Amino acid sequence: MKTTSLKIHASEFLGDVSAEILHPENIKYILTLAHGAGAGMNHPFMTALSNELAALDIGTLRFNFPFTEQKKKRPDVPAVAHKTIEAAILKVKELFPSTPIFSGGKSFGGRMTSQYLSKQESHTVNGIVFVGFPLHPSGKPSVERAEHLKDVKAPMLFLQGTRDKLAIGI
């Protein structure tokens, strides 16, 4: 298994963000893996998930959003997050042109990925993987955050815990 640290150029305005590729020797798929609102790409959960996927020959490209790079507490607005996700997908396509690409993330990262892909006719991404989809803000059950999912053309996989307070039904 090979680990590569790199910078991804999100845009002229946003600059670069940190990223890390975990590349198994016999890679079958690659997943762009966006972090949640409360922790960056090197959070122990994110690195453990990448390691577990690598054991299954699934590579990952973990990356930070600009707010994490700038050590801000408030997550980026969707337009900034979407631009960063787009840059990560394009970097994976450039580095692994013949490997099937999936995209997704933990909580905020998965939601921003699906919002971005709901507006794209992407033939690059084979599916979205959600690790804890934040259906609503804490303590405010609703389904508005899921409205855009009807416009997503790619297959979606939701991995959700039974005690997740951001996904309890209304």
Give a written overview of the molecule.
The chain has helices at residues 44-55, 66-69, 78-95, 108-118, and strands at residues 2-11, 15-23, 29-34, 58-63, 101-106, 125-131, 156-159. It is α/β, with parallel strands linked by helices and 170 residues long. It has a 7-stranded mixed β-sheet, sandwiched between helices. α3 crosses α4 (108-118).
Short characterization:
The chain is of the alpha/beta class. The chain is 26% helix and 28% strand.
Layout of helices and strands:
Elements: E1 2-11, E2 15-23, E3 29-34, H1 44-55, E4 58-63, H2 66-69, H3 78-95, E5 101-106, H4 108-118, E6 125-131, E7 156-159
Parallel strand pairs: 3-4, 3-5, 5-6, 6-7
Antiparallel strand pairs: 1-2, 2-4
Outline type: globular
Number of helices: 4
Within the largest sheet, what's the order of strands? 1-2-4-3-5-6-7
Uncertain ranges = none
Structural class: alpha/beta
Mean pLDDT, all residues: 92
Query: What is the H-and-E element order?
Result: EEEHEHHEHEE
Strand content: 25-35%
- Rounded radius of gyration (Å): 15 Å
Major sheet: 7 strands, mixed
**How far apart, in Å, are the first and last alpha carbons?**
43 Å
Give the beta-strand count.
7
What is the helix fraction of residues, given as a range? 25-40%
